[in-house]
Amino acid sequence: MPPILDVRDLHVHFHTLDGVVNAVNGVSFTLEEGETLAIVGESGSGKSVTVMSLLGLIPVPPGKVTGGSALYYGANGERDLLKMSELELKYLRGEAVKPDEEFTEMDLLQMSREELRNIRGGQIGFVFQDPISSLNPILPIGEQVSEILTRHKGLPKEEALERAIRLLGHVGIPDPELRVKNYPFEFSGGMRQRVVIAIAIACTPKIVIADEPTTALDVTVQAQIVDLFKQLRQDLDVSIIWITHDLGVVAGIADRVLVMYGGRPVEVALVDDLYDNPRHPYTTGLLCALPRLDSVASDRLECIPGAPPDMLQPLVHCPFAWRCDYAFERCWEKIPPLISVGEKHKVACFYDLEKAGPRDV
Amino acid sequence: MQKYLLSRLLQAVLILFGVLVLVFFMVRIAGDPVNLMVPREASEEYREEFRNMMGFNRPLLVQLADFMGGALVGDFGNSLHFKEPAMPMVVHRLPATLELAGAGMIMAIVVAIPLGLIGGFRPGTWIDSLGRFLGLLGQSTPSFWLALLMIFFFAVDLGWFPSFGRDSIKSIILPGFVMGFGGMGALVRLTRSATMEIRGEDYIRTARSKGLLPKTIYIKHVLRNVLIPLVSVIGVSFGYSLGGSIYIETIFAWPGMGQLVQQAIGWRDYPLIQAIAVFTSVVVVLMSLLTDVAYAFIDPRIRYND
């Protein structure tokens, strides 16, 4: 599958009163068409900042993208037809195969605010963590869904509202034609998250970014929302970036997993591969920390000793070295690069868990 | 909505009842009310005659019932000074005070809300600094001092506006400005802080993630939410300013409620003072009732949450 998003060496800093917080330190990943990529990591590992910064959704200042690129390959639909080459137009008319990727790739990080606004919501949808606070409390639900259609599809109000009703029905809101007049406080948490999802998919985006969409919900509702995402992925053929710290949810929905620590990717692998064969000490620690159905109730949950790294310090070595049982000299000398250890499996670690010894790099 | 309004209405009635009881006892709490109302050198016969005339020799409960009955039909007795019914005199002053309070409020809103909004959206810019400076100035400048200053500059030196009275449209500029200046200060600060708070809300991030245009975000999503705290403050403070400003109306010889208060106290005209106190309370309670209604119109959580 061709990539739809290719992020390379992203750096994001926040300038605070205490100093510069190095929130994201060289993150690279790709998102393929139709794929669900989970980004996993503990609080402060930079997973939300990574995706929010791609679309200008971090507050600037204090935040600032200080380096990297984010090539987006889906922009052709929104491009000015008059400026397209003959080949591109032929492709759009279905008369030619997809030309080389150059014509569609655009660096999100280099776009003007206006261009980004067209991408946001129109081509990349968002679902946020807390559905209680992510809807405007004093606007009717219908209005909040339909305004994105008016904005990106140029639909007149009535038509947009009709579409909104259909969308709400599609995400499982009962009696949508009555509910559009309701306000967020008249919905439960799970129903509100469905509304947020309806907003995210309203303009049939190419990518949906879901930032801990189930964290604020209780477990049964979590499962419903995960199921809804699975169904939508099939219906809409959309790529999903799913940010979470819950490895249990990841197993249910992701194709591939990116594990982040200290603002850096430490391991990326296909989901089954990651669970069966974790290659980074942090990933193994995370997997051990999962509660198991077959464990004895009185057993204490495993945890990784130590605390997350101080992001105020510039990164000069492996961010996990402090907490790592396997750390040796090299881990304190430089930052381990992401190296390939199998098909679609990369890890950033100088220690080879399989060999039980330093890795040859 | 109906339940909400009904409960507010009931509260208003209870408050007014409490005000009436307080006003009734206000003149009796220090002992013989006759001592408050007649000159110290009055003869014993005159005191006795006055007591009979005012009905102060009757049992307290009878007096209270009489007072309440009168209050219901707006009868608070005659003004001691003017020898005519007190309440109509008070009501007669309302238009002037309404005019002054309205002018002040409009001046405050016109300046404060745009400044506060811009300051809240773009903190740290020069216009934000200007707003914060004016906010501080408005809240910390004593109105009587500002009034004198205005008279010196604009009435005496420049001669642009009259220094006192209520004769033409020009008369209201100076007192209206002084009246609005303090409220403007409070309003700039409130608008700014409310805007900054709303701007950081999750649903504004959602609005941005939809790719909405900035003007849509500001007007539809931010401004409407900022209005909720603003309406309550504007409504209540307008209610208070309808009670009249003693300083400003006295300095500018503005024939409103505040001036009447000052005169009535000077004359020890207790029936008149009682009428003013009750009338002012009614106005304040009515304004906050209106504010509650406006509130319900803006915020659906109140409108539907019965």
TrEMBL record, chain A:
<keyword id="KW-0547">Nucleotide-binding</keyword>
<dbReference type="InterPro" id="IPR050388">
    <property type="entry name" value="ABC_Ni/Peptide_Import"/>
</dbReference>
<dbReference type="GO" id="GO:0015833">
    <property type="term" value="P:peptide transport"/>
</dbReference>
<keyword id="KW-0472">Membrane</keyword>
<comment type="similarity">
    <text>Belongs to the ABC transporter superfamily.</text>
</comment>
<keyword id="KW-0813">Transport</keyword>
<feature type="domain" description="ABC transporter">
    <location>
        <begin position="7"/>
        <end position="287"/>
    </location>
</feature>
<protein>
    <submittedName>
        <fullName>ABC transporter ATP-binding protein</fullName>
    </submittedName>
</protein>
<dbReference type="GO" id="GO:0005524">
    <property type="term" value="F:ATP binding"/>
</dbReference>
<dbReference type="Pfam" id="PF00005">
    <property type="entry name" value="ABC_tran"/>
</dbReference>
<keyword id="KW-0067">ATP-binding</keyword>
<dbReference type="InterPro" id="IPR013563">
    <property type="entry name" value="Oligopep_ABC_C"/>
</dbReference>
<dbReference type="InterPro" id="IPR003593">
    <property type="entry name" value="AAA+_ATPase"/>
</dbReference>
<keyword id="KW-1003">Cell membrane</keyword>
<dbReference type="GO" id="GO:0016887">
    <property type="term" value="F:ATP hydrolysis activity"/>
</dbReference>
<dbReference type="Pfam" id="PF08352">
    <property type="entry name" value="oligo_HPY"/>
</dbReference>
<dbReference type="GO" id="GO:0005886">
    <property type="term" value="C:plasma membrane"/>
</dbReference>
<dbReference type="InterPro" id="IPR003439">
    <property type="entry name" value="ABC_transporter-like_ATP-bd"/>
</dbReference>
<dbReference type="InterPro" id="IPR017871">
    <property type="entry name" value="ABC_transporter-like_CS"/>
</dbReference>
<dbReference type="InterPro" id="IPR027417">
    <property type="entry name" value="P-loop_NTPase"/>
</dbReference>
TrEMBL record, chain B:
<feature type="transmembrane region" description="Helical">
    <location>
        <begin position="133"/>
        <end position="156"/>
    </location>
</feature>
<comment type="similarity">
    <text>Belongs to the binding-protein-dependent transport system permease family.</text>
</comment>
<dbReference type="Pfam" id="PF00528">
    <property type="entry name" value="BPD_transp_1"/>
</dbReference>
<dbReference type="GO" id="GO:0055085">
    <property type="term" value="P:transmembrane transport"/>
</dbReference>
<dbReference type="GO" id="GO:0005886">
    <property type="term" value="C:plasma membrane"/>
</dbReference>
<keyword id="KW-0812">Transmembrane</keyword>
<feature type="domain" description="ABC transmembrane type-1">
    <location>
        <begin position="94"/>
        <end position="291"/>
    </location>
</feature>
<keyword id="KW-0813">Transport</keyword>
<feature type="transmembrane region" description="Helical">
    <location>
        <begin position="272"/>
        <end position="298"/>
    </location>
</feature>
<dbReference type="Pfam" id="PF19300">
    <property type="entry name" value="BPD_transp_1_N"/>
</dbReference>
<keyword id="KW-1133">Transmembrane helix</keyword>
<feature type="transmembrane region" description="Helical">
    <location>
        <begin position="12"/>
        <end position="31"/>
    </location>
</feature>
<feature type="transmembrane region" description="Helical">
    <location>
        <begin position="226"/>
        <end position="252"/>
    </location>
</feature>
<dbReference type="InterPro" id="IPR035906">
    <property type="entry name" value="MetI-like_sf"/>
</dbReference>
<keyword id="KW-0472">Membrane</keyword>
<protein>
    <submittedName>
        <fullName>ABC transporter permease</fullName>
    </submittedName>
</protein>
<feature type="transmembrane region" description="Helical">
    <location>
        <begin position="168"/>
        <end position="190"/>
    </location>
</feature>
<dbReference type="InterPro" id="IPR045621">
    <property type="entry name" value="BPD_transp_1_N"/>
</dbReference>
<dbReference type="InterPro" id="IPR000515">
    <property type="entry name" value="MetI-like"/>
</dbReference>
<keyword id="KW-1003">Cell membrane</keyword>
<feature type="transmembrane region" description="Helical">
    <location>
        <begin position="100"/>
        <end position="121"/>
    </location>
</feature>
